[in-house]
Amino acid sequence: MRLPFMFHKGLYFYASLAFSMLLIGVSTGQPINLRAKSMKSLDFGDHKGQLLTGNVSFEQSGSRVYCDRAEYDPQSETLKGAGNVRIVNTDGATVTGTQINYNNRLQQARVEGNVILKEGSLILKAPWLEYNTQSKIGWYGGGGFIQDKETFLKSRRGRYDPNRKKLFFRGTVILETDDYLIQTDTLVYETNTKTAYFSDYTQINTADEQIILNEGYYKTEQKQGYFTKGFTYVAKNKRILCADTAFLDKENETGIARGRVWLYDSSENWMLYGQKGAYRKQLRYAEMFGDALAINTQNDSLWLRGDSIITEKSTNENFNITRGIGHVKMMQGSTRTTAQRLTHYERDSTIQLRGKPVIWDSLTRMSGDSIDIYLKNNKIRNGSLFPNALIINREKGDYYSQIQGDSVYYALDTQQKIELGMGIPQRQKHLLHQRRYCGQCRLLGGLHQYEIQFSTKQNRPGPFLRQTPWNPVSDRPNSRRKEAIGTLYLGR
Prior knowledge:
This protein is mostly beta strands and 492 residues long. Helices cover 2% and strands 61% of the residues.
């Protein structure tokens, strides 16, 4: 996830310069030294002032002010200038307009009429600019426009407070560069910490991404952001992230989302839900916490729930690994799965279940201390259970068959029915040197009787010889209710 650089590195300096250019008086209210081609007395009623025409100018605090004509009232210490108003700073920056009003007693200046500030590559345009020479606070209104090379900022109002070292932009704020476009109603920039604050609906667009937030801040130097009251991230690669709050660290490529987290990847039809999410791009690692839920809607929908769900890339091979931890539940079609831990390897489509796993559907129930599953086309094809393995399969009606042993291998047909089962007795490993198999595997037949042949020549069991119809267990004579001793293959 990439968050854009919120402010051009010099934008705060230029905006503050726009207001400081109006510094034409000092806090002591010192007299103004006026110059002009023509000066004459001007009647203000009960006192006299000055009317100046032709190249009017005066200098205060390092800035020289020019205009075509001006009226100065020494009693109120106010000056009104008009015509080709121009303020020139010693560093070459200029402000132009059509009128200027300056109150030396209040230490406040105002330039009006198509105001333009220029300094190097920066251009600021506004209907008017005001500046207080004592508080050093400046502001503009009526719709302002700032351009610095390829960076553009528009807002209805703007203000700079050097005491708090903050720039305020309000009213349909638009910040545009070659890389991104920010649209908001309120934007505050803290010049000493280089931090941008948002307190209203904000939308950030890049060529590949869109970010929507309501409140938060972004540190432009550290490239870190924290956003609250709703956060949405939309990528053109068809990924969407929503959360109540989010923290992003672009430099370290990490992120944390909290509160009603929702992640959607339409390219792979995955949706993730949880109360907290974490992301580390360098480690190619993402985790969802808090009753996490993952849903894949491709073909047969797959649901995966757990205390946490982790996705990561293999460290030495480029394939995905998905893990479910704590109270894991999985559902696909009519198949249900429970376990304490689940690991899915995308490379060979295998699933490992640990911690008293159980798999069941309308025909089959499988359990064991551990279960491995191989998938094909998102359906179970074969796998193994170990130890304490148990498979119960519904044959027809109320008839069932059962395989139990220390380890069981199974295969399912296209109808998800068992077509091959192999049970290995518990003590098999200890008796291989006797070239025979021993232990206990039980087959309780439903409709069929399974006869088993044992082989002692090659350390492997022989196949069963035949299947014959058999009545339900409850109808069998006691002499025919028996357990098969040895390794058992079950097939149709």
